[in-house]
């Protein structure tokens, strides 16, 4: 009877094909303001998840006429709409690897929820989302990295090179804001390609021809229009020191903001933020605040083994759906949950582990307004020693406090700043206890050590001490970035004063490994995959998890698991040695979350069937070649990495 009741409960949470279609029809009607009858005619099932006989995890419906698509959840305990787009179509046979991984992550999340040992309630919407309003996509262009965008990029080995995803993301943001209004604010130094080709010290410099650029170049364009956008792309690439290659052009994310500020007239308040320093909720709030203010975000995320992708986040829909412009010529642009970018299961193609580490975002992207609205300085350390001081007479002041204080310039330009510690009474700044004026270069960090604070006063029980900063010459202090994590509260008695941490205590994360699956043929010299389903029964987790094999570190993954949430992480492992290997999954502190073993057999032994089902074309046709975007290709002749059956093969 127990199993029967559990089965009935599970079936009650499943979404049937008919229910999914009705949700898609309702969505199409709401998005396109059509009648119900018309909406019923406008959607068709493109495909559904391949769950190997288990309940369907999601359904994908296309809206006829290229009017977008909707991804419908297969479980009633999740949001009904997992992702959608207002234009274009989705085709399983022609799908970029990141999009396939997004869908795979939806499937993994829902399957993990269904396997959870205790009943899972529907996830309530965050209270803060109720006050959020929809933001239409800010970036209208549908650009990519190839023709005509790469026309001015350098050739390599006689072959054209793509613009690079960083340059494409920057260029689309700049085009949307028409910034700078004319040409670069200062000459861009020649990169090694330009210096080699021309011998000149600086890149060519003329006005950006915004009026000649098109939102969409697939509909036809003139040579003038092509060269206008190609010039923009090349300038962006040089500004971030792009490394050009026919197989993919790359640039570091930490050069995006300095390039925009130093050469393209962007606000000096712009900064690069790192997701690891924020909870899932804080990160979502911050990205929403940007797009709600009309500022597109350049979002960057990496895979431990397969590189990095930069794209634009520029819109919002209720339910924490953010609009993503992938930089693929409009293909697959749509609304997605940011958390979905964190959980990918291994499927042997493209980014095996997904974009799970080094998430960052360039925020504050707007033309220079000469108004400082963001803190100039980020706190990296604040400590009091001793934290207890005494006085002999309650009518007199306490002995001075001493502290050490470290901070850094997070701006993209040098700043002349005043930095100090402020005394806050009733939440308002009463006065600065110490202050120091200095010039800080971009990224420069400095430390005040053994500093003696000024007089606190006789009665200030409950007052707070927090880091403050301002530009030299300004009379208004601001709290530094990260101040909430470095504020202290005074507990004052008649003869003793104690300085205690005043930041709001956050519950510590507590990770529980619910399930571990080994995926692969377990043969020596081949990559094997270890996927762990993890539930966080504590506070929000943002950090790295590590794989150890036979006591040696074998890999790591980024994980962003909110409080009371379940997610999946995947590791890769290769051993040339046959036999039993003991592996463990550990956190950054070395706490062991799981320990197990795998048996590696010699090459040539009949492979163990994979425990996962695969929907990509590369696995349905083991005798055909595919590139890392899942597109079928003739037998490779050019250098690169390709898929044949289950294996990646490098040429």
UniProtKB/TrEMBL annotation:
Classification via Gene3D superfamilies:
Peptidase C10, streptopain
| Gene Ontology terms: biological process | proteolysis
* Protein name, as recorded: Spi protease inhibitor
Q: Which residues form the Spi protease inhibitor domain?
A: 12-110
Q: List the active site.
A: 165, 309
Record's keyword terms, sorted: Hydrolase, Protease, Signal, Thiol protease
Homology family: Belongs to the peptidase C10 family.
């Amino acid at each position: 009877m127990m199993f029967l009741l559990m089965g009935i409960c599970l079936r009650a949470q499943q979404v049937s094909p008919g229910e999914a279609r009705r949700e898609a029809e309702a969505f199409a009607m709401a998005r396109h303001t059509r009648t119900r009858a018309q909406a019923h005619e406008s959607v068709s099932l493109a495909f559904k998840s391949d769950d190997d006989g288990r309940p369907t995890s999601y359904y994908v419906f296309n809206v006829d006429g290229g009017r977008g698509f909707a991804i419908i959840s297969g479980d009633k305990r999740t949001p009904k709409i997992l992702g959608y787009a207002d234009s274009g179509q989705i085709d399983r046979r022609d799908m970029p690897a990141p999009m396939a991984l997004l869908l795979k992550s939806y499937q993994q999340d829902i399957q993990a929820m269904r396997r959870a040992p205790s009943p899972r309630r529907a996830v309530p919407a965050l209270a803060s989302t109720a006050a959020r309003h929809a933001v239409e996509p800010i970036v209208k262009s549908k650009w990519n990295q190839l023709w005509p965008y790469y026309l001015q990029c350098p050739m390599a080995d006689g072959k054209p090179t793509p613009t690079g995803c960083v340059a494409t993301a920057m260029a689309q943001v700049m085009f949307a804001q028409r910034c700078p209004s004319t040409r670069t604010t200062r000459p861009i130094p020649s990169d090694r390609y330009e210096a080699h080709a021309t011998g000149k010290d600086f890149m060519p410099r003329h006005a950006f021809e915004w009026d000649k650029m098109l939102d969409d170049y697939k509909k036809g364009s003139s040579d003038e229009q092509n060269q206008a956008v190609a010039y923009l792309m090349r300038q962006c690439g040089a500004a971030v020191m792009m490394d050009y290659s026919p197989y993919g052009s790359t640039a570091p994310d930490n050069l995006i903001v300095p390039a925009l500020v130093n050469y393209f007239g962007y606000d000096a308040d712009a900064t690069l933020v790192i997701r690891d320093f924020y909870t899932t909720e804080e990160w979502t709030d911050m990205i929403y605040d940007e797009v709600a203010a009309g500022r597109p975000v350049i979002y960057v995320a990496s895979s431990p083994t397969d590189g990095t992708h930069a794209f634009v986040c520029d819109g919002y829909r209720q339910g924490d759906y953010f609009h993503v412009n992938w930089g693929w010529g409009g293909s697959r642009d749509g609304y997605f949950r940011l958390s979905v970018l964190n959980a990918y299961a291994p499927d042997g193609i493209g980014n095996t582990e997904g974009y799970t580490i080094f998430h960052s975002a360039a925020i504050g992207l707007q033309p220079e307004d000469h108004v400082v609205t963001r803190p100039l300085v980020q706190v990296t350390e604040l400590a009091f020693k001793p934290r207890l001081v005494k006085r002999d007479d309650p009518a007199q002041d306490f002995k001075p406090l001493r502290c050490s204080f470290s901070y850094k310039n997070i701006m993209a330009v040098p700043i002349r700043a005043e930095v100090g510690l402020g005394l806050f009474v009733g939440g308002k700044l009463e006065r600065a206890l110490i202050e120091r004026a200095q010039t800080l270069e971009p990224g420069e960090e400095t430390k005040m050590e053994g500093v003696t604070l000024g007089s606190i006063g006789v009665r200030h029980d409950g007052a707070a001490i927090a880091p403050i900063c301002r530009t030299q010459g300004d009379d208004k202090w601001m709290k530094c970035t990260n101040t909430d994590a470095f504020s202290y509260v005074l507990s004052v008695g008649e003869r003793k004063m104690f300085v205690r941490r005043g930041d709001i205590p956050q519950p510590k994360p507590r990770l529980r490994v619910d399930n571990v699956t080994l995926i692969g043929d377990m043969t020596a010299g081949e990559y094997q995959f270890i996927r762990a389903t993890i539930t966080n029964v504590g506070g929000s987790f943002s950090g790295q998890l590590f794989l150890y094999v036979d006591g040696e570190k074998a890999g790591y993954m980024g994980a962003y698991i909110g409080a009371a949430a379940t997610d999946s992480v995947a590791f890769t492992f290769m051993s040339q040695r046959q036999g039993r290997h003991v592996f463990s999954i550990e956190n950054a502190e070395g706490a062991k979350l799981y320990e197990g073993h795998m048996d590696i057999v010699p090459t040539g032994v009949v492979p163990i069937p994979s425990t996962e089902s695969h929907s990509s074309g590369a696995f349905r046709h083991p005798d055909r070649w595919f590139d890392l975007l899942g597109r079928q290709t003739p037998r490779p002749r050019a250098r690169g990495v390709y898929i044949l059956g289950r294996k990646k093969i490098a040429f």
